[in-house]
Amino acid sequence: MGKLTVRALRAVLVVVFAGTVCIQAGMVWVLVSGSDPEDGSLPLTPLRVITILGMLTVQVAVVCVWRLVAMARRGTVFSHAAFRFVDVVIGAIVAAALLWFAVTAINAPGQRADPGVTVIMAGIGLAILGVALIVLVMRSLLAQAVARDVEASKMQAELDEVV
Questions:
Q1: Is residue 159 a contact partner of residue 127, using CB atoms and an 8 Å limit?
Q2: Are 70 and 38 in contact (CB under 8 A)?
Q3: How many Å apart are CA 158 and CA 35, to the nearest integer?
Q4: Assessment of whether the complete model's pTM goes beyond 0.90
Q5: Which of 46, 125, 142, 155 shows its CA 20 to 30 Å from the CA of 37?
């Protein structure tokens, strides 16, 4: 992985992480300060809590991707240690999807006149779960690469013994 690619990805990760922290801080401030402008039309407090948790899922994924990028840069990503980070990313994506489904459920009663909005929101939740499945497929590819790397190391050791 090239230095420019790593730096660009890390810059994006820093911006995303900082943005999620700012959003969380704003949501926590509104909840703690009591300056909630809730007018009763939507249950905003649960939505704010869900937003705080959703930003946490993004932060967890960003930290894990950062660690995976570091491993790729060092050339150690094809090891069993990488599975821990990939598994956490998958868990964070699934948690984000579940939180999105909670938002959909909270929003649904207000959409009785236009149920298409709820259907679209549910579709977005399924798309988020689809991303988790894509990462799961990539995890299986990583497992195959690690197995091949172990196999190649064994063959190299056998070849070294012969020579």
A1: no
A2: no
A3: 70
A4: no
A5: 125
Residue 20 carries which side chain, given as an amino acid letter? T
Q: How confident is the model at residue 41 (pLDDT cuts 50, 70, 90)?
A: low
Query: Based on the number of CB atoms within 10 Å of its own CB, is 82 exposed (0-12), middle (13-18) or buried (19 or more)?
Result: buried
| Residue 87 CA to its chain's centroid (Å) | 10
Q: End-to-end CA distance of the chain: give it in Å, rounded.
A: 33
Sign, Cα dihedral of 91, 28, 23, 5: negative
Question: Are 59 and 42 in contact, with CB atoms under 8 Å apart?
Answer: no
Segment 72-107, tens digit of pLDDT: 888 888 888 999 999 999 999 999 999 999 999 998
Q: What angle do CA 157, 81, 21 make, to 5 degrees?
A: 155
